Amino acid sequence: MNFEQRQRSKWTFLLVLLARKLNKNILKVDGTTMRRLIATILTLCILHVYIVGTCPADWNSFGLKCYKISNQPLTFWNAREYCNNQNAVVIMPRTADEVNTMQTLVEQGDVIWIGLTDIETEGTWLWNDGTKLNSTNELWNTNTNNPDEPNGFRTENCAIGHIKTGKYKWTDISCNSKYWVVCQLKVSAYNKTCSTLVGNSTCYNNMVCVSDICDCEIPAMQYHDSYDKSCKAMSTYNENCSTQVGDASCYNDMVCNSGICDCEIPATQYHDPYDKSCKAMSTYNEACSTQVGDDSCYNDMVCNSGICDCEIPATQYHDPYDKSCKAMSTYNEACSTQVGDDSCYNDMVCNSGICDCEIPATQYHDPYDKSCKAISTYNEACSTLVGNSTCYNNMVCVSDICDCEIPAMQYHDSYDKSCKAMSTYNENCSTQVGDASCYNDMVCNSGICDCEIPATQYHDPNDKSCKASTYSLYMMVFLIG
Fold first, then answer.
1. Is residue 335 one of the residues assigned to a domain?
2. Residue range of the domain that includes 317
3. How far apart, in Å, are the Cα atoms of 89 and each of 166, 181, 437?
4. Domain count, the chain
5. What is the pLDDT of residues 211-233, one digit of tens each?
């Protein structure tokens, strides 16, 4: 019976034995025990399928490891070369599991090389990988009539395993003797050398052999956890990550921060769920992601039609120095000399660090709509709510109409839009304005204020008026009569 037939027969025997046990006692077990037995059978079946199917072609599985027995006896040197050529080593039964494997592989009479020699230093037994034999794990055979093993001294520097008196034991032997050899496939860990000829089974824990190096199956989406030597799916934004592994457990260059995957610089980056990456936030007037929305804009800006903007553009301005949106200042409030007029509301200008109307001499500030408006001139509508400042050149707002402050004593000069004191008798007047520039119904005659009819009127300096003379009245009566 060959190796594979032995292995399959042992599994079949175990399953049949359990089935017979179940059949024999089927009427004696309660429901819980029945469920446990059924679960055990299913587990064994699954394990049997799994173990038989995990190794490369021509290899056999046992204990979740892959083994291959030679097709003829070989010297130790040839046995070691035979295994090495297949990315394997001569079996080294160092652990209890490996010893049990050997006991399963070796039947009464079988003799198999093991990877243990004292070739370098007599009496110092080393395993194939250079580690020293642990005295607590020695399985040397004891002899009744001869010295206990190892007893070959310099002529017997290699070791074989065999069943003797029902137990698996070791014996030292000449390395030139010929025995069967069992090769154990080398299983490499992450980033270690593997065999592309043999395939992925030369890598540990479902890793793949790529370019003779063990790696995760999908490196772009998996990371290697050195604590259990497995490949795991990387976590994405806001998912749990491994603080032991660190940033490598997060997808797409994210960092593992307090056990959660996050962007490296959360204050200036956002997470794009469409390609699971962290991207730099856009600032004012730059393109943003309409799919992600406002999060793709820096400093509480909003993504409006694919462009980052202040949330309320009519009342906010962008400060490029700290890349933030700030409330615009209104009339007589402090503004940013660095930003300039944009930091002032409603088309005002930033003048010496204070928001003001663009042309203060001809504009006034209306606090009701926070705008600057043109100052009204003489006889134009003004705002009684705002007051006289809505009128040009020291005029006053009376009944919503701009007028001179003392209409009885002032006139409006349309040429400089000002109110001026009326001239009195014999004073200069404005020929452009005319009689209105003279006081008390006098007339402007050749640039001098005079009574309207000088021949019949005189000027009374006491009330600054023109009055008819007595002589003139007498002559008028005489002429009429």
1. no
2. 281-327
3. 27, 10, 124
4. 3
5. 989 999 999 999 999 888 889 99
